[in-house]
Amino acid sequence: MKKSGGSSKPASGSNVRVVCRLRPMNKKELAMLENAKVDSNGNKIRENCVDFYRDDTTAITVFTPADKVDKSAEKEKDGGFEKHKFNFDYVFDCASEQVKVYEVAARPIIDSETE
To answer: Which residues of the chain have pLDDT under 50?
Structure first.
């Protein structure tokens, strides 16, 4: 996927844009977080399985428990988790409002079809 630098306009000649919208944790997930395991220093271990970058609205990192993935793959480890970075044309965080999602993801399609 080609990075668009967070622009809400599709790249010239582009037919498909791929966006990712991260949802807030539900009640069950929040309850699990309350009972999260702690390390030897008393710190909770991996509160989220996805990291969102405030300064880069085109990328996320997904954390997978190292014991749940293919051992032959070369991945970057982070405290028992493997990191997998994914790039999109735009990434919306949990606090994104529906109107912003519409303006970036849907409106360009609608506008191009009505021109």
So the answer is: 1-5
* Prediction pTM value: 0.63
Q: What is the pLDDT of residue 60?
A: 93
pLDDT at 101: 93
Three-state secondary-structure class, residue 115: coil
Residue 87 has a pLDDT of 96
Q: Which residues have a Cβ under 8 Å from the Cβ of 90 and sit 6 or more positions away?
A: 4, 6, 8, 17, 19, 20, 57, 58, 104, 105
Pairwise CA distance, residues 2 & 17, whole Å: 9
Domain ranges of the chain: 19-114
| pLDDT the model gives residue 38 | 67
User: Is residue 83 a contact partner of residue 63, using CB atoms and an 8 Å limit?
Assistant: yes
Cα separation, 10 vs 109, whole angstroms: 9
Task: Give the SS3 label for residue 81.
Answer: strand
Residues 6+ apart with CB under 8 A from 12: none
Residues forming beta bridges with residue 91, ordered by sequence position: 20
